[in-house]
Amino acid sequence: MSERLQNIIDGINDGSIIFVFYYNLTMEDLFTKDIDGTYFLEYLLRKRIMIPLELKEELKTNALAAYLYCKNDQSIFNFELSEKDLFTEFDGKKLIEHILEKRQIDKSIVENIHENLEIIDLLCNSNNYFYLNYLSQDIITKLITKDNNGIYPIEKYLNNKRLIEKIMPSINDINVLLEICNRNNDYDLIKAVKARMLITNYKDDKTILLFLLNDKKVVPDCLINIPEDIIFIKYLIKNNLYDYLKKASEDVLLMEVDSGKTLLEFLIDKGYDPEIKYIYNKKTISILYLKQKLNLAKFVSDDVLLTPVKELFSDDSLGDETLFEYMIRHGYKLNSSRISSEKLLKICYLEQRPDLLEEASISDLLKPIDDTYTYFDYILDSIANKGLKIRVPSCPWSSDVNEHIKYYTTIAKHDMMKYIRKIKAETLLEKYGDKTLLEYLLDTDSDLTLNKILSDDLKADPDIAVILKNRGIVQKSVNVSKEENEYTTKYIENINNHLGIGPLPEEGERLLNELKLLFLTDGKSDKALITALTAGYRNALMNNYDINIIEIKKLIEIKKENKDIFYYIKNADGSYFSPSNGSIFCENANTNTLLHETGHALHFYTADMKTPDDYQEIVERARENPEVLAKTKEYAANYRKLINNITLLVEQRYDSFFKSYYSPEKVEEIKKNLTKSKEEKKKEYKELHIPDEQLDMILSDMYTQEEYIDHQKRIFIEDNVDAILRNEFGSLLTIGDILDAIYEGKLHSNTLKDNQGEAICRTGGHGLNYYYATLHGFDEMIANFAAISKANDAKEKLKMLKSIVGDEVYDMIRNFYYQDILKINLEENKVYGGKR
Questions:
Q1: pTM, rounded to two decimals
Q2: Residue 494 — very low, low, confident or very high, per pLDDT cuts 50/70/90?
Q3: I need a surface site. Which of 224, 438, 764, 795 has the fewest CB within 10 A?
């Protein structure tokens, strides 16, 4: 590199040069390297020095410059690169690969490629499927042109559904596509082609569309999302394909198809009820009214709902009543779309329809009806006092702290914290300006915050406790220890190792091994969870072989069909089955929990989470039955006694252990750790602006060996009680979960009362916040039944369940599980029984 260029670099480095416009730089200068092989251009790019305009114009067609821009994280948006440039190699990779790696791809680059089919692989491998929409017609033509072996290049991609969906609409040669489909016996390949291509003739006067529908049972995308193509629509009418037309969008339904008649009118006249997803157009309402089909209007835009019916129905005698008021007063069933207009909120209140506010945002619901009462108050009152069954709206997404304050204090004022998800400490400790949400809540209403919003667990959080103590609020039982309690894990492993000991028939051993291997080799499932699952099923086979071997076969079948989505995953945030991704997440390897969550998975994969047709009526009869309530109370009292006895047993059993474990040496070790923790916390709590002397006093009060040991004991006792309860009395726990589902979470949330108004003891379950966010509790009934039926004491506990809930509820759950999920003929298989 020349002395002149080196001087410029030195000036840039020491700050004396910030522009290079007056140094008469040339292209040769820009591409001069130093001793390390770094281009002068790179120095300018790294230091964000503006390139002279005349050089920038020359650079935009230079492949090396584009590479250097990419390498140094500079935009190549204005570059004009040829296809040859894009496929030129730099540093072992093509320029296009560098562009993709740096996420600088855009549609103009893809459109400019005409020869290199490799662009398809590059886009797919970098997960840039969107840009397949911009492939040039030359590339598309190459894809459907046979090579020397008589193979179409597109056949390489037939298993890539995302790619096929993107490319098919660009292909115009239907004969080639049909040839490929015939050769591969896969007609799903042409689902995404353009509608017009499908109404061309195939053979024997049959169009391709009819051939796909009738002969191959394939429904093309254009029948799911019907295009605004009048020729295609008239073809569907001519061929009586009304079941597809009735699902068309509002815009398509308002197209004229016959003598000035819209498709909407035409379908209604033919006896078909269109399934209109959302109504934005007033004309749609006018037609539905004239055709006496207003019941088809479910989701309607705010503007249309607020339009006077005299305008919509062309009848001045109707006055100023809005469509919304008209539909409510005439009993039409409106779905609760996201109402945001304050006028609609007011109408819901005046017409006493809180159910229509379920999807409204909390920002809108916090608007006042009068000086002291909001729409949110109205919803909460309706849930608590008028039997409204909707979920409590979620907390605000807004960054406005006042909304968060109003949200939590309003719920607390109504004593309904149990109806929402538990607040996490992180939520309360989030900063808004110079204060946390917790501090704002305490400033707004200290009593409400301490007595209603903060649970004992939250108060024990050290980050919350320090804020409370700074305000002089006495807070005992602070969680300051850090030791992990390994007892629970070892206890569960020991239980699992002793499950189902003994020989099984050859078929049972083979299927258990197959089940285990399928999950252990899928790359995602957790070994400990799968070992526990198979231990649970081994034990179940020992108790009832004929039934459980069918379930194992079903589970193997599900895994094979869903191998890329169905996993058992270790998870720190509780245990659950996720329908959104098809996997089971578990906190630990407890077999009862695993079999419960597997029950959810079976329900999802084999019965699509369906419920019996008469579910609501059956459960309501049980809920209103005083005998069921009395037996539930008796069960809950016995359950509470059991927990108290287990707790006492654990406390007594380990009292001497605690004394010996926390020796003088151990206490000294704890003191050292606490001193270190205290110093770390002092730095962390600086942002709370607590005076140093006061903070020292607070931390000294919190971080004591007594507090540490007390917390460790609490963890030990709670975890042990939970582990014993789940492993030794798991089927008893699941009965409580089923009862909680019948009473919509009130049993677990401790709000269920007997006929004399006395509170019934709390049991296991999911609680009010869960059941007010879901449509029903049948999913939990099925999952719990799945777990009980595999327990060692299944016969006894199922008999107990039946005696509490009654024959009707029990038979509904039992029959659905065995017949609808496992597809078992109960007449041919015994529900109980030992080894075959």
A1: 0.70
A2: low
A3: 224
